[in-house]
Design goal:
The chain is mainly α. It has helices spanning 8-35, 38-45, 49-56, 59-66, 84-98, 104-112, 116-138, 140-163, 167-170, 174-189.
Length: 193
């Protein structure tokens, strides 16, 4: 049976769409929704602004597409309960320190302060992804009550380290962040010492 190959035009279309989303996320992260322009996104994607409109229709629809975030949380069922807080902190540090300009989660966080749609999406992301991951470790009832507080701690880390860049927080090594923040998350989850 012959192998099915994707037409060149479709591959090119996928690459263009990905380039637009990458540029959009970088602009929304750096400048927020209000100050980001279709022209700037198109320039960074090395395309005509009309192509952005062709693929996404409006800036709002492009923003919605850019707001799609998979936290890529690790499977916590294979982690000893006492190690879960450190695993979570390290997971988010690795994401943000890998390439913070291409992390849609930071874009959502920055935009959520001034944009209702981004705030709604942030609530969805953490509500739908964090609580179920924690439920595997602490049970569904406890996870439902505590996921928001764990999210607050992790989002507070993102805000102070990557967006506000508080010197006392940015000066910490990843190991120091894990050693300092994991015990607080452990208490929040009710996992004890």
């Amino acid at each position: 049976m012959p192998e099915h190959r994707e037409p060149a035009a479709e591959r090119r279309s996928d690459r263009t769409r990905a380039a637009i989303l990458r540029a959009a996320r970088q602009h929304f992260t750096a400048q927020g929704y209000e100050r980001t322009t279709i022209r700037a996104i198109a320039a960074d994607a090395d395309i005509d602004p009309s192509m952005v409109i062709r693929y996404f229709g409006t800036k709002e629809r492009l923003f919605d597409a850019a707001l799609t975030v998979d936290l890529r949380l690790p499977d916590l069922t294979a982690v000893a309960p006492g190690d879960v807080p450190a695993v979570l902190v390290r997971h988010f540090l690795n994401r943000w320190e890998g390439d913070p300009t291409d992390d849609a989660l930071l874009m959502v966080l920055r935009s959520a302060v001034t944009n209702d749609r981004a705030a709604e999406r942030a609530r969805e992301i953490f509500g739908v992804q964090v609580a179920p991951a924690l439920a595997a470790v602490i049970g569904p009832e406890a996870a439902g009550r505590r996921a928001g507080l764990v999210s607050a701690q992790l989002l507070g880390l993102a805000l102070t380290r990557y967006l506000l860049r508080l010197p006392t927080v940015t000066a910490l090594t990843p190991d120091e962040v894990v050693a300092t923040l994991a015990p607080a998350i452990r208490e929040t989850l009710g996992l004890g010492g």
